[in-house]
Specification:
166 residues; 19% strand; alpha+beta
């Protein structure tokens, strides 16, 4: 009787240890996946910096976060991250902007703000009008990218590549 009891206790102990191990491994894997998802987004500034580097742009100045509102009139709560770079040269008109939408419902609001900004540039900056003719806006949710450059299509393709790599 005691031999059967010892075997039964051993089997139960091994089963409990296996169950506890499985639960711990499951919790660790779940935590690892959730932390990857939480950190899997790129900042708007990282995206534009990579576009600039890959496209070999030079003489661009980063606009501070506080000053982006001087260019784009974006309603509060529409975006959660943004970055903007413009050319140092007044005759160039090159501009890049990247926004991270707060949610999908904000897409049209941001699109309207971008259109308004581009329209205002069209009337005030005749030197950069050749670039304005080649404005490219591209969206890979949650990111919206705006390129005002002679090769804006290539810049938008580079944006897509960068966002896809993350």
């Amino acid at each position: 009787m005691s031999r059967k009891r010892n075997i039964l206790l051993t089997v139960i102990t091994i089963a409990v240890i296996a169950l506890i191990t499985a639960v711990i491994v499951g919790i660790l894997l779940s935590y690892q996946n959730s932390s990857k998802n939480a950190n899997s987004y790129l900042t708007a500034n990282t995206i534009i910096s990579r576009v600039i580097k890959k496209m070999n742009y030079q003489n661009l100045t980063k606009i501070s976060d506080e000053n982006i509102s001087k260019y784009y009139n974006i309603p509060e709560g529409t975006i959660i991250d943004s970055a903007m770079y413009i050319s140092n040269r007044t005759d160039s008109g090159i501009e890049f902007a990247c926004f991270r939408l707060a949610d999908e419902s904000s897409s049209q609001t941001l699109s309207d703000a971008i259109s308004e900004h581009i329209s205002s540039k069209n009337t005030e900056n005749k030197e950069g009008s050749s670039q304005l003719a080649k404005v490219k806006t591209d969206t890979v949710y949650p990111y919206v990218f705006v390129a005002v450059a002679s090769d804006s299509e290539a810049a938008a393709n580079t944006f897509r590549e960068i966002v896809s790599e993350k």
